[in-house]
Design a protein that fits this description.
Layout (H helix, E strand, L loop, with lengths): L5 H24 L3 H20 L5 H27 L5 H34 L1
Helix pairs in contact: 1-2, 1-4, 2-3, 3-4
């Protein structure tokens, strides 16, 4: 039986929130460019983590987690830009920003731990 992945579960739940936010922004605010960027990067995080579950090596896993981390950072940027350009309210942005920041912290930890493991393996 496969072990539950906290970061996978959180990134999937986050992707659902991003999809719903995208639908809101396009329907209610008629904004299509920034929201599409948010949709792309916000859903890519979980997809990359999912890919990492079946990585061919630790190095491949590390690469997937690094790219997921970059996508999470980009997503934070798009949320801030949508907030500051008033497509979403400060109140709307707070919770979703907290979620992406938590994912960033988790991915940062995974990347650091995996790098450390790879360095130790090379030293043997």
């Amino acid at each position: 039986m496969k072990k539950e992945s906290v970061v996978m579960n959180k990134s999937y739940a986050f992707a659902l929130r991003v999809v719903k936010l995208y639908k809101y922004i396009t329907i209610e605010k008629k904004e299509y460019v920034l929201s599409k960027q948010l949709l792309r990067s916000g859903t890519a995080i979980g997809a990359l983590i999912k890919e990492g579950e079946h990585a061919q090596s630790k190095a491949d896993f590390l690469n997937k987690m690094n790219v997921a981390l970059k996508e999470a950072n980009e997503t934070e940027y798009w949320i801030q830009l949508l907030r500051d350009s008033e497509y979403i309210s400060i109140k709307q942005s707070i919770s979703i920003l907290e979620d992406v920041l938590e994912i960033i912290r988790l991915l940062t930890s995974i990347v650091k731990t995996t790098k450390g493991t790879l360095i130790k393996q090379k030293q043997k």
